[in-house]
Structure formats: C-alpha cells, structure tokens
Amino acid sequence: MDIKLYIILAITLFTIGMIGVLVRRNAIIIFMCVELMLNAVNLLLVAFSKMHALNPSLSPTVASDAQIFVFFIMVVAAAEVSVGLAIIVMMYRNVHTVDVNFLNRLKH
Amino acid sequence: MNTIFQLAWLIPILPLVGFVINGLGRKTLSKTLVGIIGSGVILISFVISVLVFLQIKQGHTDVIHYFDFIQLRSLSIAVDFKLDQLSGLFLLIITGIGFLIHLYSTSYMHEEDNKDFAKYFAYLNLFVFSMLLLVLGANYIVMFVGWEGVGLCSYLLIGYWFRNSDYTNAAKKAFVMNRIGDLGFLLAVFWLISKIGSVSYDQIFLSANLAKLSVFDITGITLLMFVGATGKSAQIPLYTWLPDAMAGPTPVSALIHAATMVTAGIYMIARSSALFSLAPITQHVITIVGLATALLAASIAIQQNDIKKVLAYSTVSQLGFMFVALGTGNYVAAVFHVLTHAFFKALMFLGSGSVIHAMGGEQDIRKMGGLHKHMKITSITFFIGCLAISGIPGFSGFFSKDSILSGAYEYHPFVYAIALFTALLTAFYMFRLYFITFTGKFRGTHDQEHHLHESPLAMTFPLIVLAILSIVGGYIGVPASLGGHDELSIYLSPVVKSVEQSLAHETEYVLMGLSSVLVILSILFAWVKFRNYKNALPTTWLQKVLENKWYVDEFYQKIVVEPVQSLSVFFNNVIENKIVDGIVNGVGKLVNYSSRQLRWLQSGQVGAYVLLMVLGMLILFFIQLFL
Predict the structure, then answer these.
(1) How far, in Å, CA of B533 to CA of B440, rounded?
(2) Could you identify which of B324, B377, B424, B556 might form a hypothetical disulfide with B290, taking C-beta atoms 3.0 to 4.6 angstroms apart as the criterion?
(3) Are B345 and B261 in contact (CB under 8 A)?
C-alpha cells in the first residue's frame, strides 16, 4: 500500500489529538487526545519501518529500530497514564471537577 | 660613607615622627608637651643639618640610596637623598627658620584649644617634612612627592580655621592653583623619562644624556617645569593664591613665604640649572614673567591696607626678582636672594604676627599707628627687616638684590631699569607699611590701645635672631667689587654655575650707587608722606585699581571660574540629570514595562500553555523545514 495513505492517516489522528488537547477542557478527554497523538506517531513509525524493511539498500536493523521505539513509546504512555490518571483522581477528590480551566492557580 | 651622612635620613624623618605623635596624641597631650615635641624635632633636625652642612662645606657630597621605590623594565626610581651644596644650604634655611617659626608658634597659637594646637603643630611638622623631602630627594620623583606634600600642607594650614568659609575657599584656591602647576611639573618629568629613561639628577645632567635631548625637548621640558614653578612660587599667572594664603595663622604665612613652599620653585630651577642653561627661550620667558610679576605685585602692595597682604605681595614681588635672576642665568644670585629673603621675610611676618597679637587680631594698618612706643623690639626688628628688603647698603638684602640687578643689567639694560624701579617700589611700600603702623598717632579703639603690649620672649626671641641674620646674612656673598670673595658662589659652584659676570667694577659701583641713592630717596618720600598718616580713601583711579589688585581676581573669576561653573551646571543639569540618569532610569523603566506586558502570558490556564507549546513546536518545525 502506498506510504502516503499511512502518513495522511497519522497526520489526521495527530491533528485531531492536538486540537482536542487545545480546545477541550475536560482533563480525561485531554488525556485521551494525548494518547491519540502518541499512537499516531506509533502508527507512522510502524509504517516507515515496514517501508524501509523492503528496501534492500538499507541495513536490516533500520526496520527493527523503529519498532523498538514503538515499544518504548507504549511503555512510556502506560507509565504516563498511570501517573496522569492518579493526578486526575486526586484533582477530582479535591475540587470535585475535572475541568482544567478551573485550576488556574499556576498564575499566582 | 661619611658617618654624619648616615644620620641624614633623620632630618626629614624626625618632623614626620613629630607629626605622627602630635597628630595621634592631639586629644591627650598637653600644650607644653606638644610645643616641645613639635619644636624639638625640628631643632634636632636643624642640629643634624648643621653637621651635614659642615661636612658638605668641606667638599664631601654624596648620594645615599635607601630603597627602590618603583621598578619598571628599564626605569628604576629609587628613594635616594642627595647631599650636596644646594640641598645643604636649603636644609639650613628650612630647619633653622622652621625652628624659629615653631618656637614663635608655641606662644602665638597659645590661645587655641588643646586639640587644635596639637593639630596645628602636626601640620607644621608635616609641612617641614615635605619640604625637606623635596630638597633632599636625588631625583624628580622624590622631589615631586615632597612637592605635593607641601601643597597639601599649605592647604591644611591655610584652611586651619576651617569654620570660616572664606578661609577654606582661600585654601582651596591655593590647592587648585598649585595643582595646575604640578601638572606642568609632572609632564616635564614624564617627558624626561621618555627621552632619557631616568629621573635621577645625576643621570639626567650627564652631558651624554643631555645630548639626547633636542632643542625642542629641552625647551618644552624647561617650560613645563617653569609652569610648575609658577604654581609653587606664585608667579603670573598663578600667583593669586599666595595673597589669599594669608587666611592661615601668621606663623604659617611666615613658613610658607620664607622657609618653605614658595622657594620650592626656585630650588627646582636652580637644581635643574644644567637644563635651563640650554634653553634660552625658556630663560627669556622666565625673565619676562619674573619681571612682570615683580612689578605687578609691587604696584599692588603700595595700596594694600592689610598688614599681611602687603607682605604677601612683597613676597610675590621678591619671588619675581628671584625668577629674574634665574632667567638671566644668575642662579647663585637667586639662591642668595632666597636665603636673605628667608631671613627678612620671616622676620617681618613674625613681626606682623606680633603686631596682630598685640592688636587683638586686627590686621588693618589704618587702625594702627604709633605702635613703636608700645612694642619696641617688634618695631626695631621690623625696621631692620624693612631696611634689609629695601636693599640699604650693609644689610643682607642689598647684596643679594645687587647681585640680581647687576645680572639683569648685563642681560639687558631695560630689564635692569624695570627691576630697579620695582626695587624702589619695594622700599616705598615697605616703609609706607612701617610708618603707618609704627609711627604717628594710634588710630584704633581705646580698648585696643589699652591692650597694646610687647609680645612674650618666645615671640621676640625669633624676631631678634632673624633681625641679626637679616643684617649679617648678606656677608656670605659680598661681590669681588666690594672686596669680598663671593663665598656663596664658590660654595655653590659644584652644583650651579651662574653666567660669568663681566661687568667692570666701575659699572658695578655706578649701579650700586644709583640704586642705593634712589632707594633712600624713596624711603624719604614714604617718610614724608606717611609719617603722620591719617585715614584717607583712595582718590585717583590708579589708587583704586591698585587697591583692587588690578582686578586680577575678578578677571580670573570671569574668565576661568564662571565658565567652569556654568560648564559644571550644564553637566549637572543636562549630562547628569538628563543623559546619565535618563539611561539608568530608562533601563529600570524598560524592565518594569516589559515585565508588566509579559505577565499576561502567565495566565495560569493550562490550555494557554499548551497552545504556546504547540505554537513553539510549529515554529521549530518551520525553522527546521524551511530555513
């Protein structure tokens, strides 16, 4: 399949994720959007890895490097989710809302 | 090394020790102790100076090395003392007359507070120390240190009564005027260093080193040195500080005018005579400036009514005479006149101090008169001083002045004529002063008349000693034409060489006779005019101009002081307030403003931060991809 389609899909997912982060106020939605961006990147990495694996002029390790990166990102994302959700839970316990605009005390 | 010369370092150090003791102990020491320490150190210095002088007189001279002061690649400046004929003579003048003035001060300043009394003696000792350093130094740098020290002490002493703002202004004036001269001296020393690479006299005056200097160099160096001398020795255009220096206590005036300070310029030029002899242009300049100063100051002295002002202008005028002698290459005569002038000017200043003391601080001679019958010793010694300064044959001033005049005649008859005229003015104003003060009727208040008394022994003793010296002091330099041997010029010949005098003895007799007769006539004229002086206001315009000192101070005020002041005001208002403060405050305001604007970025909204982050990332992408 043509690589361009993968790229377009990844950019679309990434943009949706980014816009979600920018415009939504619900912390959980923002969180999900961040995950979406991470996975868009993962998709792109896998697609490029597959493409390079078919290219005989490159060294065979190039393909596996990208896939290892994907695992790294998954691990980091899992860690992030556990920490982030914990923060959100604590936030909800304290202020009974998950609206990020409510917490604007960073200003002070 | 000569054993006595090994003691030479004590000569300046003792006054310094006196300064330290009196200065630090000013709150605890009693007046008697302060007086004993202050005068005693000078007396010991004097004794050592006499011993040193006797050695020098036998022909022993030496340069004593103490330690290195500055070491730069090829330039080495050491603290060395030069003991030779010239410095030996000056040592005697400074410590001898200095001691008499210290002794006199113990009585004159006795009404001061304990603390001020000690302060006064500390300054006085420091003054003597600086002057001794100036004279003893074997190179221009040590001389310069003393030179500056003298300037500082004159400032401190002129402004001794610092609660009076006029006096502190006079002190400031003296300091600033001296600084102008000092700059000239310093530049001359730099010039010498750059051309010869040494500052020590022995090095510079080697003929091999003198040959390194072009005519331009020598003229420039000597002119700059002369600028220095005009500052210290009060010549046109920097002389105005000296009359104002009368603000200090009278013994200080005596010290400044007779033994120290103003003779520094003469000493420096006499010391550098090897240089000046090679610079005819400078010599012309010195002669003209000296002559003009002598005449101007003498004319001002005629119409002054403050006893100390008359003496001050007389000093300026006599210094002018000395510069005429220096300019005409007659260095020995200049040193000779320094010596005799030191005697009679110290005498007259101390005498005027005695008068002021008796009058309870009054200095205006119009309010004196008839003091002779109240204070005989002061009056007689003062009279001797007047005779000496006028150049009556037989008194010390006659020989030195005659030596200057005959040198001037040889140089140019016109110079002689002006100098002679100035000498007549000298005799006239000195005797005007004498007659107005000591003869006629008393014109002060009744209280003052009741208070009149002769001064105590501590004040009259120096007067008597100085009077004797004023009479006999001239006999060390009796010219050959009068059957003398001119011992002074033989004595000084290893250090300073005057131009050979080639006047026939007959010409000299005519010149001496002429000046003596004219001087006596002008004294008689003063006697007729001021014997029974009554207060009179100046009538003619000339008298008014003279009384106002040719308006020189006003002229300087307009030409120098006011422009400088308006420049300062300009700098203060525009440069300082607008530009400097503007920049400093502007930086502060800019930071304040920009931080207030940047504060809006810190909204505290997580979304806003994320937006900024995304924008930043986009900018980075943009830079990465397209630039």
Answers:
(1) 7
(2) B324
(3) no
Say how many residues make up chain B: 627
| Cβ-nearest to A22 among B602, B603, B614 | B614
* Nearest chain A CA: its distance from B596 CA (Å): 14
pLDDT in tens, A48-94: 888 888 777 877 777 788 889 999 999 999 999 999 999 999 988 98
Closest by CA position to B457, among listed B354, B373, B356: B354
pLDDT of A105 reads 64
Residue B137's DSSP bridge partners are B81
Task: State the Cα–Cα distance between residues B383 and B427, nearest whole angstrom.
Answer: 12
Tens-place pLDDT, residues B565-620? 999 999 988 888 889 999 999 999 999 999 999 888 877 777 788 888 889 989 99
What is the radius of gyration, based on Cα positions, of chain B? 30
What domains can you pick out in chain A, each with its CATH number? 3-101 (1.10.287.3510)
Provide the residue type at B96 as one letter. Answer: G
The amino acid that residue B156 corresponds to is: L
Each residue's pLDDT tens digit, B252-284:
888 888 777 888 999 999 998 888 888 889 999
b/e sequence B578-599, b meaning 16+ C-beta within 10 Å: eeeeeeeeeeeeeeeeeeeeee
ipTM value: 0.76
Across the interface, which of B603, B607, B614 has its CB nearest the CB of A100? B607
A25:B607 CB<8 A: yes
Residue type, B178: N
Q: Is B614 at the interface with chain A, CB within 8 A? A: yes
Q: Given pLDDT bands bounded at 50, 70 and 90, which one contains residue B515? A: confident
Round the average pLDDT of chain B to a whole number and report it: 87
Residue B72 has pLDDT above 90, yes or no: no
CB contacts, 8 Å: B602 with chain A: 106-107
Cβ-based interface (< 8 Å): residues of A facing B = 18, 21-23, 25, 100-101, 103-108
* Chain B residues near residue A21 by CB distance under 8 angstroms: 610, 614
Structure tokens at B222: 């000597």
Helix (H) or strand (E) holding B71, with range, is strand B62-72
B369: left (phi over 0), alpha (psi -120 to 50) or beta: left
Q: Is B611 on the interface with A (CB under 8 A)?
A: yes
B329: nearest Cα among B256, B408, B401: B408
- Partners of A22 on chain B (C-beta within 8 Å) are 607, 610-611, 614
- The dihedral region occupied by B484, where left means phi > 0, alpha psi between -120 and 50, and beta the remainder, is beta
CB pair distance less than 8 Å for A22 and B607 = yes
**Which of the four pLDDT bands, split at 50, 70 and 90, describes residue A14?**
very high
Give yes or no for a contact between A42 and A75, defined as CB atoms under 8 angstroms apart: no
When CB atoms are compared, the residue of B604, B605, B610 closest to A21 is: B610
Q: In 3-state terms, what secondary structure has residue B616?
A: helix
Residue A10 has pLDDT above 90, yes or no: yes
Q: Is B607 on the interface with A (CB under 8 A)?
A: yes
Q: Report angle CA B229, B231, B236 to the nearest 5 degrees.
A: 95
The CA distance from B23 to B120, in Å, is 9
Tally C-beta pairs within 8 A across A and B: 29
Q: Report how far apart, in Å, the C-alpha atoms of B591 and of each of A107, A108, B583, B594, B597 are.
A: 20, 20, 12, 5, 10
- The 3-state DSSP class for residue B535 equals coil
pTM for the complete prediction? 0.79
Q: Strands, E, within B162-229: which ranges?
A: none
CA distance B193 to B139: 11
Contact B399, B479 (CB under 8 A): yes
